């Protein structure tokens, strides 16, 4: 999978910006605030149709603008493919926006569009994956699986709609405007879609747990045991009955995949609480290596690797490990200083200055 061109219109600080990769790995150099990270975010957003950096997609649209567009030309399985994603801000609702996507100028659903190109993004703020809120970790799970499984994306969209309707009925029951039996339909629909999400998430964590300790050993030279503990919020009719009084009182659904979480345990210690900054950083790198391999295994193509100004965060040993990965797929790196990237990278990669 190779990206050739990228055009951004009203995406964050890029009003009208085009970059030509020519299928090469690229080093993008520019001062802080020049929009380097935004370029990588746009590519990853094109892969997943979701951003890890904002809660509302509308925030991606440039200030005082109403429409944002991302266009890309990429070679996928040997064929040149043109991708387009347009985001239109709502004139009625403050944080709402409408998303439209096309492949080769043909309109597609978001479910079919996500994962057309695949990418893995590694940036310094990603370390918050361990210590941040559970919603951050759920978004991470979703963004990996959106790229590898259309049925997951479809089930997630269905689950979100069902959850919204069920919460509405809970509110109506609380206000005595609906009968509790009206929940039965939504309970059945929620259980059905939740089972798909739980199955695919478990599959991903099984892959991670089978590989992350090996990657961590290669990176650190240690025999520490790493485990990702996936905490499912299980759904069943029995559990829903147990929680129904609390849910009516809270007017919201307290069970289901939207309450899932995971944590990383390093030799029996939670890395978010007891891990040093260095341990968290190396664990994150090992996790990203697993993510690369998982997407490759599921799609049959190596994803684009996006490295966002990470080299000031890595010691020499980990820089060397990243050096060995860079040549395995198209890699796009950002840096404020070309000389502070990987050893020799600035001399071997195409350099684009902002």
TrEMBL record:
GO biological process: DNA replication; DNA synthesis involved in DNA repair; double-strand break repair; SOS response
Family the UniProt entry places it in: Belongs to the RecF family.
Positions of the RecF/RecN/SMC N-terminal domain: 3-336
Functional summary from the UniProt entry: The RecF protein is involved in DNA metabolism; it is required for DNA replication and normal SOS inducibility. RecF binds preferentially to single-stranded, linear DNA. It also seems to bind ATP.
SUPFAM superfamilies: P-loop containing nucleoside triphosphate hydrolases
Gene Ontology cellular component terms for the protein in this record: cytoplasm
The entry's keywords: ATP-binding, Cytoplasm, DNA damage, DNA repair, DNA replication, DNA-binding, Nucleotide-binding, SOS response
Protein name as catalogued: DNA replication and repair protein RecF
Pfam (any one): SMC_N
Keyword Transferase (UniProt): no
Gene name of the record: recF
Sequence positions that bind ATP: 30-37
Database matches in InterPro entries: DNA-binding_RecF (IPR001238), DNA-binding_RecF_CS (IPR018078), P-loop_NTPase (IPR027417), RecF/RecN/SMC_N (IPR003395), RecF_2 (IPR042174)
Record-level Gene Ontology MF annotations: ATP binding; single-stranded DNA binding
Compartments, record wording: Cytoplasm
């Amino acid at each position: 999978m190779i990206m050739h061109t990228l055009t951004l219109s009203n995406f964050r600080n890029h009003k009208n910006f085009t970059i030509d990769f020519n299928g090469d790995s690229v080093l993008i150099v520019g001062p802080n605030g020049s929009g380097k990270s935004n370029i990588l975010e746009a590519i990853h957003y094109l892969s997943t149709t979701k951003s890890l950096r904002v809660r509302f997609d509308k925030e991606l649209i440039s200030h005082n603008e109403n429409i944002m567009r991302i266009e890309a030309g990429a070679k996928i399985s040997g064929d040149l493919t043109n991708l387009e994603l347009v985001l239109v801000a709502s004139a009625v609702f403050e944080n709402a926006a409408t998303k439209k996507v096309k492949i080769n100028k043909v309109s597609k659903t978001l479910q079919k569009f996500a994962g057309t190109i695949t990418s893995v993004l590694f940036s310094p703020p990603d370390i918050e994956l361990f210590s941040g809120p559970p919603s951050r970790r759920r978004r991470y799970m979703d963004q990996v699986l959106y790229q590898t499984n259309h049925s997951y994306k479809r089930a997630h969209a269905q689950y979100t709609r069902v959850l919204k309707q069920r919460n509405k009925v809970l509110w109506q029951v609380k206000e005595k405007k609906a009968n509790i039996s009206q929940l039965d339909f939504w309970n059945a629909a929620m259980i059905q879609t939740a089972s798909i999400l739980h199955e695919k998430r478990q599959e991903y964590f099984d892959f991670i747990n089978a590989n992350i300790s090996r990657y961590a050993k290669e990176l650190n030279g240690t025999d520490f045991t790493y485990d990702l503990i996936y905490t499912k919020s299980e759904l069943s009719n029995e559990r829903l009955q147990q929680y129904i009084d609390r849910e009516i009182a809270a007017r919201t659904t307290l069970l289901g995949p939207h309450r899932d979480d995971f944590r990383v345990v390093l030799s029996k210690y939670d890395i978010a609480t007891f891990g040093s900054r260095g341990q968290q950083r190396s664990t994150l790198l090992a996790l990203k290596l697993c993510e690369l391999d998982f997407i490759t295994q599921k799609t049959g193509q190596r994803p684009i690797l996006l490295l966002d100004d990470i080299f000031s965060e890595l010691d020499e040993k980990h820089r060397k490990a990243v050096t060995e990965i860079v040549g395995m797929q198209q890699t796009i790196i950002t840096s404020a200083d070309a000389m502070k990237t990987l050893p020799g990278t600035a001399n071997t990669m195409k350099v684009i200055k902002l």
